[in-house]
Amino acid sequence: MREARKQATRRRVLDAARELFEEVGYDSATIREIAGRAGVSVGSVFTGFRSKAHILSEVMQARLADLYGDLERVAPHLRGSTADRCRSMFAVHYAFEFRRLHLFLAYVAAGFDWRADPDLPTMGANPRLRGMVRDCLVEGVRRGDVRPDADIELVVDLLIGVYAWNYRQAAAKPVRPEQLTDRFDRQVGVIFAGLAPG
Amino acid sequence: MNHLPIGGLSAVAEAEKPTRRAQAKRLTREKIVAAAKSLFAERGYEASTIRAIAKTAGMSTGAVFASFTDKSDLFTEIAEAEQAELFQTMQLAAAGLSGRAAITAMLHAASERQAGEIALVRAVMSALWTPGLAERARRRLERRPVTTLIAAAVRQELPAVDSAEATFVAEMIWDGYLATLRRGALGGLTAAVVKARIDAGARTILAGVQPG
């Protein structure tokens, strides 16, 4: 019973934080406001989470669990060239993150924070996305779309780096997700042309 | 510089007065910038208050506000100076080189410079992702983007590429560079490994550019 109450409090805090981060921004949102919106005491927020960064990290993990649940089911059935399958996976990401754009930008900004706890998962590091992109590239090698001697880990870095940095435009001015998707589609074209077997 | 006006010492003193005041003003600004720079690198943007910056600089908050409108103004000035120095570092590294060799030299020089002050670089990056601050800072930071240097070298390497495409490719190379630098800093990669990965990324991108 006590455990169930603890879990309910946790969920309320995460829901409140997700809304608040999106509305006023991560930096402006205080623990006190999160507690207020969740209808719990500041103390009980700290019982469940060590810091605001821990809350952000968990909010993002929870969101991504939904996204990847769907994507991992869909990924094996994606059609077309390796480049096209890669484009489809990232297009889903752009569409998803644009639903709560401020939250995502805050997450990336926090990813540059070198003062974060060492036990906190690295913000912006996304093992499931990496894994899916890696699988897509390995499959590309098997199909003959990607050079067998390509450094797969490097290409994963490159694709995710280019994907993520495109959001920088969204931090400066309002953009539609399709603008970023179009740009990314061109970038994927360049990268895969560079990886084509000799 | 010092033209002695006719009219004796008093006129000289008059002429020097504003210069001395300007110099004092510049010194104050420099002190504030140095204090803010160390605090931003140490604590990040959000946690560095104007009060803490003033205290570190050994002056009042009023003195800080006399020189800078607010914290974001101060931060942007620092980021802008960093950007200008990075631009110069890269330009210098590419001197006498062209095309791919220039790109490699510029990225290596940039990584050496930025890896040496990674805390400040990360503070700048983090701030650039923060909406609001990003908007203002970007306007000033984009006056001399380093990607223009890379774009010029891309056109030397691939003469058939037009200038819009060269900019697109240069931005990709730079984003790939930043992603590698970030990974290097977080993953504790050695400078040599980071450079090798930066090269491989740029090579893949250049190999994939299809002119026309």
Characterize the structure shown.
The complex is a heterodimer of chains A (198) and B (212). Chain A is built from ten helices and no strands. Chain A has 198 residues and is mainly alpha-helical. The radius of gyration of chain A is 19 Å and the shape is elongated. Helix content of chain B is 77%, strand content 0%. Chain B is built from ten helices and no strands. Chain B is elongated and about 55 Å long. Residues 1-8 of chain B have low confidence and may be disordered. The interface between A and B is large, with 42 and 41 residues.
Summarize the amount of helix of chain B as a percent range: over 70%
**Assembly form of the protein:** heterodimer
**Shape summary of chain B:** elongated
End-to-end Cα distance of chain A: 64 Å
Could you tell me which chain pair has the largest interface and how many residues each side has? A-B, 42 and 41 residues
Describe the largest sheet of chain B: none
Q: What is the average of the pLDDT values of chain B?
A: 85
Individual helix count of chain A: 10
- Choose one word for the global shape of chain A: elongated
Estimated helix fraction of chain A = over 70%
Mean pLDDT of chain A: 87
The number of distinct helices of chain B, counting runs of at least 4 residues, comes to 10
Number of extended strands of chain B: 0
Q: Which helices and strands appear, and what pairs or packs with what?
A:
The complex is a heterodimer of chains A (198) and B (212).
Chain A lengths: L1 H23 L6 H8 L3 H7 L3 H23 L7 H18 L1 H11 L15 H17 L8 H14 L2 H5 L4 H19 L3
Chain B lengths: L8 H35 L6 H8 L3 H7 L3 H23 L5 H17 L2 H11 L4 H9 L5 H11 L5 H25 L3 H18 L4
List keywords for this structure.
heterodimer; A: mainly alpha; elongated; B: 212 residues; mainly alpha; 10 helices; 77% helix; disordered N terminus
What would you say about this model in short?
The complex is a heterodimer of chains A (198) and B (212). Chain A is mostly helical. Chain A has ten helices and no strands.
